[in-house]
Every structure is written in structure tokens, then in C-alpha cells.
From TrEMBL:
Protein name per Swiss-Prot or TrEMBL: 3-isopropylmalate dehydrogenase
Subcellular location(s) per record: Cytoplasm
Residue positions binding substrate: R96, R106, R135, D223
Catalytic reaction annotation: (2R,3S)-3-isopropylmalate + NAD(+) = 4-methyl-2-oxopentanoate + CO2 + NADH
Gene: leuB
Length: 356
């Protein structure tokens, strides 16, 4: 199979973790007789420095022309003073919207080897953590108008949150279909006791729940969900929620599995082209030190093989290679535990490659 992959290394630890994922993709290509070619795309802080904007039109075009996109992370203190629409993060939002990627899947699954790295009590962890956050990705407050204006002698800032029924319905459908392939349970998370967008969200989800009578369905308020994720995470299978709630809950969900550095994601719309990225950020505090955990990015590459290219066996081979590295007790600093061996980002890459 021949595939062309747009590669966005981005900022901070982005280049370090993406390089490890590309080594793994190359090894898979060689082993299974595929050809993956890579097109470099500048997005985020590096694009601001080189081109004066976080996502130049030509860069979006390169992503749209590719079979899929692999991303490290963007952002960093260097660009934090810029106005909202000129920041690195704006490039990422424009990319997601420009590619029409409304469905962001963020699996929170405990690798048993990492149980000791979870901050939860062993008796909670033992019950199992295996759920997926299905996050709406191109609507809500992220994409409403953002303004700051003078008002009565002080500044007043406004961010508008809105959702149309069709935006809720399409992400809801993804959640119910995903549940059918898993344990048949959807928890829809909202703030319907306060927000109009959430009341509409709930109405649309209830309509869908009737279409999927075989799937167990529950509503949960977002504040309670944040609490339930640490109290009893085994109750969740598919958690579907709007953009900002999903951003926050997925970081929380990642940590209970041992480290945010482990969690991959897929972002999909209509069609098979997707954007694959770890859920974490550019980790400026450890950037350039070869310390970052590359596994979230490597597993994102595996998700790309599975969901965009239908290469299930190849994806499973990457997961098995990661599993072996964890079995061998190798850990980057973020998930280090007693009795394990601390390795660098590239050493983790070496080990996974060797296991392939
Ligand atoms: P972050 O996820 O970058 O880091 C939070 C903490 O987790 C840090 O202590 C970091 O060292 C650690 N961490 C994250 N990924 C790790 C990994 N792979 N291995 C080891 N440790 C890891 O979040 P932040 O510090 O809030 O944000 C930093 C920058 O990243 C900001 O500019 C933010 O906007 C950006 N960001 C980008 C993305 C993205 O590109 N998708 C996602 C989140 C944040
Ligand atoms: C993520 C990040 C992004 C988001 C930022 C960088 C725009 O936190 O991918 O989780 O909020 O979606
Ligand atoms: Mn986030």
C-alpha cells in the first residue's frame, strides 16, 4: 500500500516525539511491504516564526492533499503573548475545522503494567479503566466569537458558545456506533442544568438513544462526571461530550491511566482522512531534553494505520511492541515507578522498534 502522510512536528517536544513515531512507521512499512511518504507541514509556533501565521493556506492545502496527517503538538511560552487569532493554538483549531474533523476519539485505557503510575487507589484501578472520550471538535465555545472591549471604564471579554442540532447529532451518532463496537454504553456529558447548548445537546442525544435501543444510555452533568472519573472510572464505556468539556475530561481521564504521555487520538470527519495526535501539549518544561514519552504519538500513528488505512494487523503490531517495552519495565519520566528502568524518548523509540 502507498500512502502519503502530512507530518506536523510542531513545537516543544513535538519534533522529538514525532521522530520516534516516524521511525516506527518506517519499520512497519518495511516489514509489511508498504510505502509511506512524508510531507513536512509547518503549523503552530514554528509557522508563526517562519511564515508569520500559525497555519498558512498552503500548509492546510498540503494536509488536505495527504492521505492523513500526523501531529506532535504546538504552542509554547514564546508565543503566549500573541492575540488569540495569531497564536499557535489557532493554527490547530483552523486545521481541525479546515479538514472538517468533528469527531475526536480519545481512548483512556489502563495498560496493566502502568497500574502503579495511576494516582488512584489500587482497588479502584483493579476494577479496570477502559473508556473512550468522544469529543465534539469543531463547535462550541472554541469556535464562537471571541471579543474583548472597553465597557464602563474596564475591559470586558466575551466568548460565545453555540451548537446547532446537526452538529450534535453527527457526534452523537459516532458515539452510539462506537458503543456498539465496545460495551454498548453511552454516557452523554453536559451542563443541562445551566446551559441552553447543553439542553439542546441532551434533547438530540435522547432522540438518538431511541434509535439505538440496544445501547445503554445515561446523561451526566459535567461536574459530577469529573468526580465520577476518579471515583469509579470502570462505569464508563463511551463518554460523549462537547468540545471544551471533552478537552478537560480527557486530560483527567489520561492521568488515571498513568500518564498523559500515553494517550493517542484520532480526529475524523466524513471520509477516511484524519488527524492523529497525542492528547497532550508541547510540554515546554521538558522540551529539547529527550525526556518526553513518545508512546502517545506512536499509538496515534497506529490509530492512523487502523482507522484511515484499514491496516489493522500493522496497528496491532505497534501496540504489541509498545506492550513489550512496558513489560520490560521501560519507562519515561512521566510514568516512572519503583523497580522500573528510566529511559529517554529515543531509547523508548529504540525499544519499540526492536520489538516490532
Ligand atoms: P502539556 O500537555 O504540554 O503539559 C502538561 C504536563 O504534562 C507537563 O508537565 C509536561 O511535561 C507533561 N507532559 C505532557 N506530555 C508529555 C509527554 N509526552 N511526556 C512526558 N511528559 C509530558 O500542557 P500545558 O503545559 O498546559 O501546555 C503547554 C503548551 O502546549 C501550551 O502552549 C498549550 O497551548 C499547548 N497544547 C497543545 C496541544 C496540542 O498541540 N494538541 C495540546 C495541549 C496543549
Ligand atoms: C488539545 C489541546 C487543544 C484543545 C488546544 C491546544 C487548542 O488542549 O488538543 O487537547 O484545547 O483542543
Ligand atoms: Mn487539551
Amino acid at each position: 500500500m502507498e500512502k502519503q502522510i502530512a507530518v506536523i512536528r510542531g513545537d516543544g517536544i513535538g519534533p522529538e516525539i514525532v521522530d520516534q513515531a516516524l521511525r516506527v512507521l518506517d519499520a512497519v512499512a518495511e516489514k509489511y511491504g508498504h510505502t509511506f511518504t512524508y510531507t513536512d507541514v509547518d503549523m503552530g509556533g514554528i509557522a508563526i516564526d517562519k511564515w508569520g501565521e500559525p497555519l498558512p493556506a498552503a500548509m492546510l492545502d498540503k494536509c488536505l492533499a495527504a492521505d492523513s496527517v500526523l501531529l506532535g503538538a504546538v504552542g509554547g511560552p514564546k508565543w503566549d503573548g500573541l492575540p488569540g487569532d495569531k497564536r499557535p493554538e489557532k493554527g490547530l483549531l483552523a486545521l481541525r475545522a479546515g479538514m472538517g474533523l468533528y469527531a475526536n476519539n480519545r481512548p483512556a485505557k489502563l495498560w496493566p503494567q502502568l497500574a502503579a503510575a495511576s494516582p488512584l487507589k489500587p482497588e479502584i484501578v483493579e476494577k479496570g479503566i477502559d473508556f473512550i472520550v468522544v469529543r465534539e471538535l469543531i463547535g462550541g465555545v472554541y469556535f464562537g466569537s471571541h471579543t474583548t472591549a472597553e465597557c464602563g471604564g474596564e475591559q470586558k471579554a466575551t466568548d460565545v458558545m453555540s451548537y446547532a442540532e446537526h452538529e450534535i447529532e453527527r457526534i452523537g451518532r459516532i458515539a452510539f456506533e462506537t458503543a456498539r463496537k465496545r460495551r454498548n454504553k453511552v454516557t452523554s456529558v453536559d451542563k443541562a442544568n445551566v446551559l441552553d447548548t447543553s439542553r439542546l445537546w441532551r434533547k438530540v442525544m435522547h432522540r438518538l438513544a431511541e434509535e439505538y435501543p440496544d445501547v445503554e444510555y445515561a446523561d451526566m452533568l459535567v461536574d459530577n462526571t469529573a468526580m465520577q472519573i476518579v471515583k469509579a472510572p470502570s462505569q464508563f464505556d463511551v463518554v460523549v461530550t462537547e468540545n471544551m468539556f471533552g478537552d478537560i475530561l480527557s486530560d483527567e481521564a489520561s492521568m488515571i491511566t498513568g500518564s498523559i504521555g500515553m494517550i493517542p487520538s484520532s480526529s475524523l470527519g466524513e471520509g477516511s482522512r484524519g488527524l492523529y495526535e497525542p492528547i497532550h501539549g508541547s510540554a515546554p518544561d521538558i522540551a529539547g531534553q529527550n525526556k518526553a514519552n513518545p508512546i502517545g504519538t506512536i499509538l496515534s500513528a497506529a490509530m492512523m494505520l487502523k482507522y484511515s488505512f484499514d491496516l489493522d494487523e500493522e496497528a496491532a503490531a505497534i501496540e504489541a511492541a509498545v506492550n513489550k517495552a512496558l513489560d520490560a519495565g521501560l519507562r519515561t519520566g512521566d510514568m516512572m515507578a519503583e523497580g522500573c528502568t528510566l529511559v529517554s524518548c529515543s531509547e523508548m523509540g529504540d525499544a519499540i522498534l526492536k520489538n516490532l
